[in-house]
């Protein structure tokens, strides 16, 4: 494979120019991981294309040489989804950062994959619109990465995930062809399959996104509780009353401590948990619901409630939550971030069991989560200089995912599987489930060169090895059953 890369290098330089092809070992280290830094791999070659046609040509060269390739946007992912291959090519889309079209009457925009999430909103806000998916990293994450991981964010409770806001994608297929996938065409929903496939089915080179009208009014409150269980009771009351907030976010005492150390968000002292609730929509409706939400928080035991009077105060309330992941670095040398999902009704039980896991193992866990839809983001803290500490943190992290599955949830809500959680897939899916998923993948990428080694624990089809299955899939050649 090293010989193949050596041969491929000059061909890539002929396509892009020497300044857009990186082979220097020191410069390659820049791209060795995404936001989950405990998985690292130095890429064999990095390329920096400017156009979709260049990406298509790069993929064709890789396919002809049998060299694997991985697409990367801003590198903010948290599952190792953009982890490069030492024997492959890393295709970085950050230079493809143009907003190509804004169609206000059609409520859509066309962007390249390297466009930063928040820049879409900045471009259309003067017209009264915004791009709804809002990951905490929205100031630096790319729309292409959002598409790959089907990213959500604090407001996904009401507005959904990236998949709900993508209308079409221009895609480079694994054989180097440029094709258009749309949401409203006849036949199978290939766009729905592509969004959230973690870059294993092709590379998005142009994305048509839905624009959402800015709501008439927004109201935000922060409620402080003595315990996370009391905060959970408030969440249950709000949702049970039929109120659909734009966002309901919760942080426990350890997460609050980290946020205070990092950004001085000045949350109420002594809080065991804080709840951020945001309502938006027509002014009269929001005013009536907001009164109810405030009452339900007090009934659940909130000892202090702060209501944002303007955008500046709203930004201050959100500042601690948006910085939570990075802030943990102030109280721990290293950490693992998880992304499990559970039904809202079992929040108190699961959080109590996470607390018990932490106490038994001696591994601290800070909880930050989208309380409204049960998407947990436990931050498992450890000292990477201490022998065995990372292994203990991994055990606790895996046990938390087991809790999510046990309670009818999922191993991921928005961060994806990548390499980090591939080994947990068999705990959630049967062999038949995994085989079916991989047959879909093989339909797009029979050579297995497009972001290989991600999502699935062991490849089983398309000749990939090592694999559990030794013979043909039992459904192969039986098209009538589909």
What is this entry, summarized?
It is built from 16 helices and 18 strands. It is an alpha+beta fold. The strands form four sheets. The protein has a seven-stranded antiparallel β-sheet with strand order 15-12-14-13-17-18-16, sandwiched between helices. The chain has a five-stranded antiparallel β-sheet with strand order 5-6-10-8-9. A four-stranded mixed β-sheet has the order 1-2-4-3.
Can you walk through the features of this model?
With 482 residues, the protein is of the alpha+beta class. Helix content is 34%, strand content 19%. It contains 16 helices and 18 strands. The protein has helices at residues 2-16, 25-28, 52-65, 117-124, 143-149, 156-159, 190-194, 228-240, 253-263, 283-299, 311-322, 324-327, 347-361, 389-406, 425-428, 431-444; strands at residues 21-22, 45-47, 69-72, 89-92, 99-103, 108-111, 129-130, 166-172, 178-182, 203-210, 212-213, 217-225, 247-252, 273-281, 304-307, 334-337, 365-370, 375-382. It has a seven-stranded antiparallel beta sheet with strand order 15-12-14-13-17-18-16, sandwiched between helices. Strands 5-6-10-8-9 form a five-stranded antiparallel beta sheet. Helix 8 packs antiparallel against helix 13 (347-361). The longest helix is centred in the C-terminal third of the chain and has 18 residues, at 389-406. The protein is globular and about 70 Å long. Mean pLDDT is 92; it is low at 464-471 and 473-482.
Features:
alpha+beta, 482 residues, 16 helices, single chain
